[in-house]
Amino acid sequence: MGPLFWGLLAGLGIGLLVASPLILKYLFQVSSERISDDRFSSNGVSVDFAAKTIAIKNRTYPVNDVTGLSWSEGVTTITVNDLRKPVHKIKFVTRGQAEKFGEKLILAIGKADGPSFTFN
What we know:
Number of helices: 2
Helix content: 25-40%
Strand order of the largest sheet: 1-2-3-4-5
Order of helices and strands: HEEEEEEEEH
Largest sheet: 5 strands, antiparallel
Structural class: alpha+beta
Radius of gyration: 19 Å
Shape: elongated
């Protein structure tokens, strides 16, 4: 094994170290939560109370188009009335975060006069 092999191996290792935080962020949503009188925003999901809309990863819907909301095993699932993308999954790394996010999202959707959901 010559110097070319070791150089490629070292370059690959450095590339993985640099890319791993970006990969983790993409695979598992890590985001700060923002709550104000006008909006709830966390993990790529925003609810605008006045406009009565929910934005999920760059797609915006009326809150009344949300048809389901559940969480388990580190994933919160949001179902909307959209034939192109009816199911949105928000993944979490930390235990219990999916449940906390789901509970707050239920309250935020209700505050925007959206449908009622029960905590599962």
